[in-house]
Amino acid sequence: MQHTFIEILRRALDEELARDAAVYLLGEDVAAGGAFGVTRGLAQKHGSARVRNTPISEAAITGLATGAALCGLKPVLEIMFIDFATLAMDCLVNQTAKYRYMAGGQLAVPLVVRTQAGAAGGAAAQHSQSLEAWFIHVPGLIVVAPSTPAEAYGLLKSAIRIGEPVLFIEHKRLYTMKGELAEGAELPPIGRARIVRPGTDVTVIAYSAMVQSVLEAARQLAEEGISAEVIDLRTLLPLDMAAIAASVSKTHRALIAHEAVLNGGVGAEIAARIGAELFDELDAPVLRVGCGFAPIPFAPELERALLPGSADLVRAVRQIMGLAR
Amino acid sequence: MPLVAQEIPKVGLVMEEVKVVRWLKNVGDSVAAGEPLLEVETEKSVVEIEAAATGRLNQILVQADERAAVGDQVAWIESAERQGASATTAASRTADPKTVAPTPSAAAMAVRDAERIRSTPVARKLAAEHGIDLGAIAGTGPGGRVQLGDVQRAVDAPRLPKAAARALSPMRRALARAMTLSNATIPQFTVARSVEWTVLQALRGELSAGLPDGSLKISLIDFLLQAVARALIEFPDLNATFSGDPDSADACVIQASGAHIGLVVAVDNGLLVPVIHDVERLGLAEISRRRQECVERGLKGRLKREETEGASLSVSNLGANGPDRFTAIINPPQSAILAVGRQRDCVVARDGAIVVRPLSELTLTVDHRVADGRLASLFLARLVAILEGRDWRLG
Fold first, then answer.
1. How far apart are CA A254 and CA B189, in angstroms?
2. Could you give the number of structural domains in chain A?
């Protein structure tokens, strides 16, 4: 049976609330279902004590959730839009991410921060950004960004269970995506990438919604006789370099694709590490595809023009293959 | 004090390149003009090069085992003398871009940059694994970049087992040049005949017994040399060499002044052909002495140039373990070569009876421009008659 991304997230939260009494949800409007309805009905089922609305203050509620986690609960905090994670960053960077280290391992912060990222049609400059790169800069955090409903189900459960602070980035464009859920399937481990589509000519590394664009590009490239191997990183921090190395050692070419801008991005980090660790395997320069370096426009036409799509990916792969003009 | 350039003079007719064997003086040593300064290996022998000026050896530019061409400067001698145009001062030479500089010049660096081959890291890795020269691969990537696929195709291409290339020694080069010249320019034919050693074997014992104690042992080759010398004198038309292009007006046959005979001596990775001159005037004992002396000096690389020139015919004897018969190639500018097969007992007919006799097969290769088959076979028949006879000159 097909479920949407939202329904599957809800199911994962529902099951974790039922499985572990320490798990509880908090965030702006979550008792009513949140901005996108992910938590709809969970307050009725698990009680208002475990699905709590908060004031509109990301700094306060991140501190609250961090404190609760330090005291033994397993909060799942929703930050409505990663754009507003800026307000939560002091706590996330200076407190949440540091406690285990500064307490010499005696304390842990089993906190999951769910947040929405990416452009999804007309949300404009303040509600459309992809800011994951800011967080992969912070030792002590885990950053997860699922690409499908089924992946989101397993990864969210793994994030809740890992016992560390996890930033769980949900792409708004994926929310309506439908997918099958393999009942009883093993939960995907945090920190491991997956091969979505095997190939031999070029490795395309992506995560979150960009994986879908990459798969579409790979289908087009296959018609041209180019076999692209698609890697879904799933976890951005820590990075699964072993998976990248295995693939690039096979294809000898790499493209990194993300919706975020290229400057100081996840792609820059991966490209640098490929250059350093896999230099002798490379048969072409490592390329990146990302968003144009500009705020996301409100006008849908401009938004479409700015965001990277499968055509950009096909062009980049051709360039790597030496087929571009 | 001015510096005088020490150059490699042209010593041999075909000498073009030498290898420095050793320096006989060190930097700072006093040298006198005409005094041996260094030893070089030419195509034919090791020769001493004399100092160009009297003074002090200032700098050695070409070290032992390095190569130099004729005319190359190999050292500076600090000297009060002025030696024509080559005398100069260090300062003026330093400004000369052709002077050997201790560091790579900017021009050399530019050349190296231009030779840089654009290639990807993995292409370089695979090429290195298979010992493939990237420069030999046409790159199909952007800007001609050599990519993995280009190297892979080269790896997959059927290849002959890689032969290890070895630089030619001056001797090997001279040999290759002489043999190529011989095969390309000399129309050669061969005549062959058996020689029986029965009489000579008996005589050799008698003659050796008659020599004073401590004398050199006379060997079969000495008899051969004396017999060849006598035959050459009897056949002056064969004792000659061909000179020039047959089409040109100055083409001629040069008559030899005496029986000058080359003796082919095998050395490590090559051969030498010392020449014994005027053999017709020598007795067996003297032939033997001279032969052993020149072979010994040849093996040490100490032959003088004149000791390798002037012959019209050479004798090649591959010894007791050699082949039954073989054909040799004429060593230009000589006009004949006698190949001596090993001595062995053969079943032969003598006076209607089957007997066993010690025989060798003589194969004479002749320059057809100098002589024809009839003359060559008469010469060979006479040579065999001398070898099978009893008429030998000992002293």
1. 70
2. 2
